[in-house]
Amino acid sequence: MITTIICVVFVLGYLAIAFEHNLHVNKAASALLAGVLCWTLYAMNGGEFMQEKDVPKWFIEEHTEKPKTENGAADPSHDAAKDSTAHGSSHVIRDYIIEGQLAHNLAEVAQILFFLLGAMTIVEIVDAFGGFSVITDRIQATNKLKLLWVISFLTFFMSSVLDNLTTTIVMISLVRKLVDDHKTRLFFAGMIVCAANAGGAWTVIGDVTTTMLWIKDKISVVEVMIRLFIPSMVCFLAPLLLISMYMKGDVQRPKESAEEKLINVPSGAKTLIFMVGVIGLLSVPVFKLITHLPPFMGILLSLSVLWIVAEIVRKDFDQVTKTSTHILDILKRVDSSTILFFLGILLAVGSLSQAGILTKVAGLLDTYVGNQDLIAIMIGLLSSVVDNVPLVAAGIEMYDFPRDHSFWMFLAYTAGTGGSCLIIGSAAGVAAMGLERINFVWYMIYITPFALIGYFAGAATYYGIVHYLGW
């Protein structure tokens, strides 16, 4: 019963996010409410999801006070498990959900939030110093169609080196400097999401799910690039060709505001800040590979270096320019509602994962579907509704195929690209939704059909390569 209630709360929260503009309630508020309520229901009814024997022994021993001997030392003969049973198993289960599972989930969420905060701040610093003009001044195309193809291909290949989240933030910030019309920018943003997710699927550092499969020794670095590049390219090109039909005429570039005209950043300073920012972003996956530390540590390192360089550079600016490039003022421009939205939606999905609901879904797929290719396709489509990380984690536990098996490769493709089918199905989509104020329903009408066509076209390409060409 409580499982049904948690699922209902999640679905209602999801619908509130989808119809944000109809309800006139910011999606961050709906996501936070859903996340907190799902965890509250789970924690208060933990006994329906697990028994005390499911709680790790180390947790019971750590949270049970051992009786003392006469000399004041802990009694080694004390049985913590029996003592916890005497005090009530529901108490132990609740403590484990709160101090074990919730704390662990929050740590994972915090890594994503700090990464997002660091990446958005780097982009804002580069933008405040006019660094993007290094690129925008060199892109002379004003034709919508030509510009869309340039931006899309840049996104596709950038996301294979960076991750899709960082690439989306950078490219949407770039498009804002090139396209004034918001409606046109929405199509660009939708294509950026599709391109970023497709581009991230064919390298082990381009998407968190491929990174997971790589770390678990399910796929190898070179093999995934060879076998997934063509399907990912097809997945990317299909929506690009279809969205191109909407791109008629020329774009009008945004005009400088009166405040921007007063800002006078030397061209050398613009280039320096841009280069430091780009090198900092590109160094994040390298930092992770060398140190094995999580990506948010790399992005914070890059941010700190850029911050120091920016503070040194701005010392010689005139007063107006120095004020506009003050780092503390730049921090205020970071969209905090997007970060809070991420927090809420990731907490909500985390509760479903910890409660075992997503694992049950994966098990049901295995029982009633059976076909491995269909399961991979369905996991990809489910990842447009819930986070692909726990779904892939469940898939890893379901099977024991050798490294580079076709199922692992197909799962890397479907989990990486399936999130494009809905705007909140991927980190890239959520970031775009916050940055460009994309309406959930608008995306579902104008982008989802194209994303689905690309998704199935890429899947069919992979299936043909494996089963007919024998790769």
Structural overview:
The chain has 471 residues and is mainly α. The chain has 25 helices and no strands. Helix 11 packs parallel to helix 21 (388-398), helix 12 runs parallel beside helix 22 and helix 19 crosses helix 21. The chain starts with a helix and ends with a helix.
Radius of gyration: 24 Å
* Helical stretch tally: 25
How large a portion of the residues is in β-strands, by DSSP E? under 5%
Helix and strand element order: HHHHHHHHHHHHHHHHHHHHHHHHH
Q: Which spans of ≥5 residues are poorly predicted at pLDDT below 50?
A: 83-88
Largest sheet geometry = none
**How many angstroms separate the termini?**
47 Å
Structural class by sheet pairing and helices: mainly alpha
| Helix-residue proportion | over 70%
3D shape: globular
Q: What's the β-strand tally?
A: 0
Task: Provide the fold topology.
Blueprint (H helix, E strand, L loop, with lengths): L1 H17 L1 H4 L3 H18 L12 H6 L17 H7 L2 H40 L4 H4 L7 H18 L2 H15 L3 H19 L7 H8 L5 H23 L14 H5 L4 H25 L3 H19 L5 H6 L2 H7 L2 H19 L2 H12 L3 H11 L5 H11 L7 H12 L9 H10 L3 H7 L1 H20 L4
Helix pairs in contact: 1-3, 3-6, 3-18, 6-9, 6-14, 6-15, 6-17, 6-18, 8-9, 8-10, 9-10, 9-23, 10-12, 10-23, 11-21, 11-22, 12-22, 12-25, 14-15, 18-23, 19-21, 20-22, 21-22, 22-25
Short description:
With 471 residues, the protein is mainly alpha-helical.
